[in-house]
Amino acid sequence: GESVGLHLPTLSVQEGDNSIINCAYSNSASDYFIWYKQESGKGPQFIIDIRSNMDKRQGQRVTVLLNKTVKHLSLQIAATQPGDSAVYFCAENAGGTSYGKLTFGQGTILTVHP
Amino acid sequence: GAVVSQHPSRVICKSGTSVKIECRSLDFQATTMFWYRQFPKQSLMLMATSNEGSKATYEQGVEKDKFLINHASLTLSTLTVTSAHPEDSSFYICSAREHQGGYGYTFGSGTRLTVV
Q1: Which one, out of A90, B72, B76, B100, has a CA that is 20 to 30 A from the CA of B26?
Q2: Is A41 on the interface with B (CB under 8 A)?
């Protein structure tokens, strides 16, 4: 029979715009969160992380916001560049007996137009 | 920074044969390594957690006899896909955590497996 593929959410922006990528996580016990960038045919590349005792963390051109009340994570990229085009994943670490395991979110395809 | 080397980057094998994928931490010791599988346009799915000197812990639904994991040293873990079939074609990615703890995870560059 015909297979139905999953469609990742997409975000298209113009070069220079700010981008916001969102992620809903599932486990209220998760205490560590990471954003990764993945280019085609490559492994995930670390962007920024945040621990559950924080609600905001900034890096170079990137900011991660954590809202534990609604289990929501966002990645803000300032002055987006064509080189930022990739798939972005959030990942959570549940801690406890799942210590060390990362659970990845669905992913968002970011396309930056020159 | 920490580097994880994964080899091979691409492999094509015939149905029924076995393929071994290596994951090495180059400049740090990794007590724990993780193996993921990623199908096109999908997220990374954890297959198993590999602990140095002990048996791997497999996620629900992953056949341990089909996906053999060996973590014989603090710098090397291998994944062997046994009796590969076309449905095993996927992108396999490893990651490693540094022996001294902390939260850092470093990912390999992935292996594209195609079974024909």
Answers
A1: A90
A2: yes
Chain A residue with CA closest to B99: the answer is A100
Residues of A in contact with B4 (CB under 8 A): 43
B61 CB-side CA count, 13 A: 4
Measured between CB atoms, which of B34, B40, B43 is closest to A106? B43
Residue with tokens 């960038």: A37
User: B10-24 burial string, b = 16+ CB within 10 Å, else e?
Assistant: ebebeeeeebebbbb
Binning pLDDT at 50, 70 and 90, where does residue A55 land? very high
What are A4-25's pLDDT values in tens digits?
A: 445 789 999 999 999 999 999 9
B115: number of Cβ within 10 Å = 20
A1 touching B (Cβ < 8 Å): no
CB-nearest to A43 from B45, B103, B108 is B108
Residue A13 in contact with partner chain B when CB distance is under 8 A: no
Q: What angle do CA A102, A107, A111 make, to 5 degrees?
A: 140
Indicate if the pLDDT at residue A3 is higher than 70: no
pLDDT in tens, B71-108: 988 899 999 999 999 999 999 999 998 766 555 789 99
Report the SS3 class of residue A97. Answer: helix
